[in-house]
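Subject: sequence -> structure tokens, single chain

Hey, anyone have a minute? Need the predicted structure for the following. Not urgent.
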Amino acid sequence: MDAPSDGTGPDGATSDDAGPDASAGDAAEDADAVADGGLSPLLDVPPSGMSCDPSQGDSTCSSVGETCRISSTTSGTCDTYTPNHIAGYPCTTSEDCDDTLQCYNGTCHVLCPLGMPCSGGCTCFGVGNDAVGLCCPGQ
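Reply:
Had a minute. Here:
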């Protein structure tokens, strides 16, 4: 019997169907994300507070001295920050980091739109939020 000429293989799969390694790049970017689609356990999440949009930095926080940090898969929470604690600075909590930075795995990281190129040649990586991730350490 000849193979079908419509581009499907014997099992009905097309050449456009993703193979077993098709999601390897996505999986590598989110390797530390919680299996249920939650936030990375390496991300320090701010304590409860006013809800905000992390893609807007501190513009959605009403208090001076606060910035918006990732706190869920879809939103953020306003949190205080420490001036001059830039990307790459060691941290225990996100409050140890400057404006628009968040503590991840003990280091302050710049918040960024997912997929955006960051300085230093890396790409903004996902930590479980739908729109915002982090740049490489020190970027």
